[in-house]
Write a structure and sequence with these properties.
CATH topology of the largest domain: Rossmann fold
Order of helices and strands: EHEHEHEHEHEHEHEHEHEEHH
Helix content: 40-55%
Number of domains: 2
Subcellular location: Cytoplasm
GO molecular function: 6-phosphofructokinase activity
Radius of gyration: 22 Å
EC number: 2.7.1.11
Number of helices: 11
Structural class: alpha/beta
Largest sheet: 7 strands, mixed
Distance between the termini: 57 Å
Pfam families: PFK
Oligomer: single chain
Main location: cytoplasm
């Protein structure tokens, strides 16, 4: 009988619990033994293992965060740390490992697969920065969290006739800013993939004000700069009141959306299927409406894709 372990690593994302639930219940349905590893690769090295049953994952599909907790591990980045992790898997009789996380977590799974550990990765990150898949678990929820904030900020921005600069997460990937900015009707969306001209931005804001525009909403991805510095610059150049709002880690929390719950469930089910079929060193993803799987080396080498068409649409509608 196979023993499958599951861990969550890196930044938490809404829908991780739904993925854990799917992995555990699918594995149990297929008569596997399941272990949960707490605190990611750090917990793996330290042997923080707990047996998982159907009741272990009851009433978690609607919860944000991760019941297995997550932590970053500097020790795992070393060869000695990874050897300890492999030894711990052997000590607990674990045959296969499902890793839920982002790019860094997948690189950890990649290293373990090179050490003959059967691994499958599930993409869980709000940043949506794994190019091989259209969407990652947590992205849709994060975008809707930002959209809710934008809707509220627009009300007060209009009332005070001011510029509102909203800084969102995503590191060097502007997807959260692009999707939420388009859906929220932002006048300007500033992305690391495209860059921007501050002087031109200020000129456009002033021209729109003269034409009678009551407010201006700017969505700024964190990877290109800070909202406070930009708001200060706008106010200095245009004389129009500008306020900055940094949404921060509220984007990571909250009950996952329907899309994220379903996506996580599909990913978790497919991950166990792959292990059952003897297919390892794989990652699951989605292209169009189809669940896919790729070799982990291939997936991590896929170049970053930016949706220029969606960006063009956003600018046309601004």
């Amino acid at each position: 009988m196979k023993t499958i372990a599951v861990l969550t690593s890196g930044g938490d994302a809404p829908g991780m619990n739904a993925a854990i639930r799917a992995v555990v219940r699918t594995a149990l349905d297929k008569k596997f033994t399941v272990m949960g590893i707490e605190r990611g690769y750090s917990g793996l090295i330290n042997g923080e293992m707990i047996p998982m049953e159907r009741r272990s994952v009851a009433d978690i599909i609607q919860r944000g965060g991760t019941i297995l907790k997550t932590a970053r591990s500097e020790e795992f980045k070393t060869e000695n740390g990874r050897k300890k992790a492999v030894q711990m898997l052997g000590k607990f009789g674990i045959d296969s490992l499902v890793v839920i996380g982002g790019d860094g977590s997948f690189r950890g799974a990649q290293e373990l697969s090179r050490m003959s550990i059967a691994t499958v990765g599930i993409p869980g990150t709000i940043d949506n920065d794994l190019p091989y898949t259209d969407f990652t678990i947590g992205f849709d929820t994060a975008v809707n969290t930002v959209l809710d904030a934008i809707n509220k900020l627009r009300d007060t921005s209009t009332s005070h006739e001011r510029v509102s600069v909203v800084e969102v997460m995503g590191r060097n990937c502007g997807d959260i800013a692009l999707y939420s900015g388009l859906a929220g009707g932002a006048e300007n969306i500033i992305l690391p993939e495209k860059g921007y001209d501050q002087d031109k931005l200020c000129k456009n804001i002033l021209e729109e004000k003269i034409k009678g525009k009551l407010h201006n909403l700017i969505v700024l991805a964190e990877g290109i700069g800070g909202a406070e510095a930009l708001a200060k610059k706008i106010q200095e150049v245009t004389g129009i009141e500008a306020r900055a709002t940094k949404l921060g880690h509220i984007q990571r929390g909250g009950s996952p959306s329907c899309m994220d719950r379903i996506l996580a469930s599909r990913f978790g089910y497919r991950a166990v299927e792959l292990l059952e079929e003897g297919k390892t060193s794989r990652v699951v993803g989605i292209k169009g409406a189809k669940i896919i799987d790729l070799d982990i080396d291939e997936a991590l080498s896929v170049p970053r894709y930016f949706d220029d068409k969606l960006y063009k649409i956003a600018n046309a509608l601004a």
